Amino acid sequence: MGLRALLDLPAPAKLNLFLHVVGRRPDGYHLLQSQFVLIDWADVLHLERREDGRLRRHDLGAALPEDDLCLRAARALQQHSGTRLGADLSIDKRVPWGAGLGGGSSDAATTLLGLNRLWGLAWPRQRLLALAATLGADVPFFVGGRNAFVEGIGERLTPIELPRAWYAVVKPAVPLSTAAIFSSPLVGRSAKTDIVMGSLADVSAPDAVADGWVCKLLDGLGRNDLQAAAEDRCDGVAQAAAWLHSRCGNSRMTGSGSAVFARAGTGDQPAAAFPAEELPPGWVGRMCRSLVRHPLADWAG
Questions:
Q1: Contact 113, 299 (CB under 8 A)
Q2: Which among 25, 26, 9 is positioned nearest to 155, based on CA atoms?
Q3: CA angle, corner 191, sides to 188 and 194, nearest 5?
């Protein structure tokens, strides 16, 4: 009969340790270079097989849009695979939306990986990646399962190895629209560069990466070219950046915002406890640890 359900599937968030806008395609999409790192702040999904072919979503936390990326991912996989099976998708939403943390894209990726197993499709990763690219720019990264240097509009992934690190992550009360940020005249522009990959190639010891390369990114080698546009639309982004910088000595916005992060150590414990009691009303945040790979990375060949 096969699997009946897959429970407690993680959908981890991501941080952009830097995000450079390096061009624009004729169709208006911006070309990027970025480094994505997975973190342990995650939504949780439960998938139950249906024999009637219907797809139903159940919100266990915050209410999601009626036709969210999870349903779209499930529908796309169902249509392209030709399966007659359906599923109940239950989502415990824990990662804040409108934050630049990739929560919706990660939920879609976990849906693809989970249903691929629940429905017994046995699609290889490359086939899932092609479908993921039709759903959103960040979805392929989460299906890929590895921290990555990302180019294009998000579809070109070069897996990279990074030591685990701690990041304090704060999201101010106001969410931001990705489309609104990219349409701002304040979006910055960086020259296309291979210095990131060159720096990795020159480092032989993981400690050197932790103590040199990643620190340099936060200290100025990289930046987020969308941050000025986000700060113009949301005072909370600049306030969160200043709040973290005063406590950690560094800060940077992730994605198109509004969440901001700061590097907070590389050992078994963060350099300091997260001062959650000091967060202004409406803000959310926590201390996160980076992941070496996606928890479901082995679910696709």
A1: yes
A2: 25
A3: 130
The pLDDT assigned to 202 comes to: 39
| Cα 164 from chain centre | 16
Integer Cα distance of 259 and 96 in angstroms:
9
Q: Which residues sit opposite 21 in a β-bridge?
A: 32
Contact 67, 137 (CB under 8 A): no
The string of pLDDT tens digits covering residues 40-98 is 999 999 999 999 999 999 999 888 888 999 999 999 999 999 999 999 999 999 999 99
Active site residues: 14, 138
Quote the strand ranges of the chain, DSSP E. 5-24, 30-50, 55-59, 86-92, 148-152, 156-159, 166-171, 252-253, 260-263, 284-289
Q: Give yes or no for a contact between 34 and 156, defined as CB atoms under 8 angstroms apart.
A: no
Domains of the chain: 5-161 (3.30.230.10), 166-289 (3.30.70.890)
User: pLDDT band at residue 184, thresholds of 50, 70 and 90?
Assistant: very high
Locate 276 and state its tokens. 């959650």
**Cα dihedral 272→277→280→281 (10° resolution):** 150
Is residue 103 helix, strand or coil?
A: helix
**pTM over 0.85, yes/no:** yes
Pairing of strands 166-171, 260-263: antiparallel
User: Pick from 230, 229, 235, 282: which is nearest to 257 by CA?
Assistant: 230
Q: Are 39 and 15 in contact (CB under 8 A)?
A: yes
**Contact predicate 60/92, CB 8 Å:** yes
In sequence order, the 6+-apart residues with CB closer than 8 A to the CB of 246 are: none
Residue 221 has pLDDT above 70, yes or no: no
Contact (CB, 8 A) for 186 and 232: yes
Using DSSP's 3-state secondary structure scheme, residue 201 falls into helix
d(CA 95, CA 88): 21
Interatomic CA distance for residues 205 and 200, integer angstroms: 10
pLDDT of residue 207: 37
